[in-house]
Design brief:
By secondary structure, this protein is an all-alpha fold. The protein contains ten helices and no strands. It has helices spanning 12-28, 30-40, 45-58, 60-63, 68-82, 87-101, 110-128, 138-153, 158-175, 199-219. The radius of gyration is 16 Å and the shape is globular. The relative contact order is 0.15.
Length: 220
């Protein structure tokens, strides 16, 4: 078996596959995310995410020779510089922190993947100062990280770990629907923010779904 095919490790080509899948999914869900944002935001989340990851895609040729930390940091800096609204700085910081968490590694074990996810969430919390229950991406990412940590402690495979993280993120995303927004643009709406799914929690779920798909593909 070639090292890059090891199902319990993520290598540089897997990282690029994840990022490429995110770019595809953000493009496919551009209208959906923007529709969610039109109810409680500036109606630009899908447009912004698609723009940001289109810019990331243009850097893939130069990213093939980078280590994984540099790949993630390139994503982060690109999102900060190309994405408007709150999502650029938030996701940009998340990817920058995630890159920092795996500095110097040529392959990622399940433990490393959990550390990467923890840093990703930590970047968003540090930048946005949001807590669980405020109707933000944190509401999807926090339960996802908890599920990933529990899976790691139970000796789960990478495919199982990322699956459980994605399922928890999906539940967290849906749990934002009845919430009252108290952070960001949506908070201006007060009671009218209730009954709408948070677009940031939705894009966070999509990012984790892409990671799960890459790990599932490796396990086949």
């Amino acid at each position: 078996m070639d090292g890059g095919e090891h199902p319990e490790r993520i290598f540089g080509e897997d990282m690029l596959r994840w990022l490429e899948r995110i770019a595809d999914v953000m493009h496919e869900n551009r209208a959906y995310l923007t529709q969610l944002d039109s109810a409680i935001g500036d109606a630009d989340h899908g447009i912004n995410m698609d723009r940001g990851f289109s810019s990331v895609r243009s850097k893939f040729p130069t990213m093939t020779t980078m280590d994984m930390a540099a790949q993630l940091k390139t994503v982060g800096s690109t999102l900060v510089s190309t994405v408007g609204g709150a999502s650029g700085p938030l996701y940009g910081t998340a990817f920058l922190r995630a890159g920092g968490a795996i500095a110097g590694k040529q392959e990622l074990t399940p433990t490393d993947v959990v550390a990467m996810l923890e840093a990703f969430l930590g970047g968003i919390v540090a930048r946005g100062k949001a807590q669980v229950g405020e109707k933000t991406m944190v509401d999807a990412l926090t339960p996802a990280l908890a599920a990933a940590k529990q899976a790691l402690g139970e000796g789960a495979t990478l495919a199982q770990l990322t699956h459980r993280a994605r399922v928890a993120a999906e539940e967290g995303m849906k749990a934002t629907i009845p919430m009252l927004a108290t952070k960001g643009r949506a908070s201006y709406l007060g009671e009218r923010s209730i009954g709408h799914q948070d677009p940031g929690a939705t894009s966070s779920w999509l990012i984790l779904r892409c990671l799960e798909e890459v790990c599932q593909d490796k396990a086949r």
